[in-house]
């Protein structure tokens, strides 16, 4: 008696889908000072000045497959999801990619330009300090990796005085190999795979200019921030 698997294997993975079940980010954003400057006014008249900023900030992201499935060749799929940063009320589209067949971690860095320009009025006897700030939001989310599996394979079997060839469907192979995350369709020749991954990163959300007015050294007055 015995069982010998044939080399023929007619399986495929398709209908890939990736999603973030919980898109709400509750982490507190952080402020990064990108540029600083001052405008003093030692005169007796207000000074009107236009200040401009053009700075580059780098967004970082990493994706890791925690539970994937092997398809005989590496399969990398790209997608995007909308993350809602609850503390600032922003929804941001995030693009990402996963390898369904390995536990590869993809790390990406993307540089973006942030610009701003505004007109300020510096009162007599004051100095205005201006700081250009980019607000960044960290995120760490679970990702669901899904795909359909279809196909079959042939095998040879033998017993005393008898040999034959049979067919085995894809769900039987997956069950025999105890592959987790697989749900068979009614005909048993198709199955739905559900895996998992991790999406982490930090990205710029918005920019603004922080202004502080202070009396010049030796002058009287109040400190104002706006």
TrEMBL record:
<protein>
    <submittedName>
        <fullName>Parasporin</fullName>
    </submittedName>
</protein>
<dbReference type="Pfam" id="PF03318">
    <property type="entry name" value="ETX_MTX2"/>
</dbReference>
<dbReference type="InterPro" id="IPR004991">
    <property type="entry name" value="Aerolysin-like"/>
</dbReference>
């Amino acid at each position: 008696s015995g069982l010998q698997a044939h080399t023929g294997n007619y399986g495929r993975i398709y209908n890939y889908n990736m999603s973030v079940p919980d898109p709400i980010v509750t982490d507190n954003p952080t402020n990064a000072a990108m540029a600083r400057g001052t405008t003093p006014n030692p005169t007796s008249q207000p000074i009107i000045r236009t200040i401009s900023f053009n700075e580059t900030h780098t967004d970082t992201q990493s994706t890791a497959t925690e539970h994937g499935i092997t398809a005989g060749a590496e399969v990398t799929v790209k997608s995007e999801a909308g993350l809602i940063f609850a503390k600032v009320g922003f929804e941001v589209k995030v693009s990402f990619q996963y390898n369904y067949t390995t536990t590869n971690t993809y790390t990406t860095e993307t540089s973006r330009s942030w610009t701003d320009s505004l007109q300020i009025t510096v009162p007599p006897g004051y100095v205005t300090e201006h700081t250009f700030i980019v607000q960044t939001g960290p995120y760490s989310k679970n990702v669901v990796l899904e795909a359909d599996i279809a196909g079959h394979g042939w095998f040879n079997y033998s017993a005393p005085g008898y040999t034959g060839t049979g067919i085995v469907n894809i769900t039987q192979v997956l069950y025999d190999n105890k592959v987790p995350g697989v749900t068979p369709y009614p005909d048993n020749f198709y199955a739905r795979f559900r895996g998992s991954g991790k999406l982490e990163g930090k990205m710029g959300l918005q920019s603004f200019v922080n202004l502080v007015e202070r009396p010049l050294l030796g002058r009287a007055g109040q400190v104002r921030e706006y």
